[in-house]
Amino acid sequence: MLEAARKLHAAAQKAAVHESTRVTRDDSPLLDTKSTEGKNTADASAGGEKPEEAGQEEKPGEAGEAGGKEASAEVQDEVTQGEQLCANGGAYIGGFKGGKRHGIGICRQVNDYSYEGEWANDQICGQGRETYPNGDSYEGGFLSGMRHGFGCYRTEKDVVYTGQWKQNMKEGLGEMNYSGGGFYWGNFASDKPNGRGSYRYGDGSAATGTFRNGLLHGAGSVDFPDGSAYTGSIIPGVGDFHDLGALRYTNWATYIGKFEKGLRHGRGIMTTAKGTVYNGEWRRGELNRNSCTTVVSKKGPATGSIAMTAAA
């Protein structure tokens, strides 16, 4: 039994030197049972006890079994290098521990899927890079085989998300860059923009506010490419101004009041670029002059139409 343990330990030492990627371990030689037995006897005699009475004597067979177990445990804890063929025709090359994929490894499948990075207990776990059959790729953190933590996902069409992940979904702060030049920065939840954030579109317009399931929801602000801007309530999924809001036009005329489906509708105050103020009821974008309570001209009477619309 002792001889077998020594051979097993010697083989483990040789393998540890040969494999540079293995985990560092204690390579001290097995305990010499003869010297141990002599030491135990001397210690017992000094104490006035016989080895049998002291209960410290070890039989060679028992020491060999203990050493064999220690050597076996060390071998189990080592990370070895190897290759494993998959049932679908793919292959894994990299580290193994206890017969499971562990450490750094590469997995490639016949459907053009590949992963290169860290493994733990036969699962993708840690930092790595995945390439998918559709051409998309992800590089970042993984946990239990899923995208988790901080990472960057790039689609084949160059849509790029960089930010936090949780169980394969965008979760937390992140930035989404679109191929058309637009981007979103803010909070994500359940794989979509949720919470406070800002959208900048390819045409130069921008929206800031609270998002729900990817859509601007409730109060927000929108800046248009022509210089006009709106602050107030917005219809989710449609983008129309609705209820109370303030609109500044390109020529710096302003309207503060009620909106309906993107048009001035209800009570509101319109101030033209020349300083004329209209305070009254509006219907589908037009002022009902019969309901106008005040018309104040600071720079002379207004001329022409006051029907102005913001850039969509």
From TrEMBL:
Pfam families: MORN. GO terms for molecular function: methyltransferase activity. Signal peptide: none annotated. Residues 1-79 are annotated as: Disordered. Keywords: Methyltransferase, Repeat, Transferase. The keyword Repeat applies. This is Histone H3 K4-specific methyltransferase SET7/9 N-terminal domain-containing protein. It comes from Coccomyxa subellipsoidea (strain C-169).
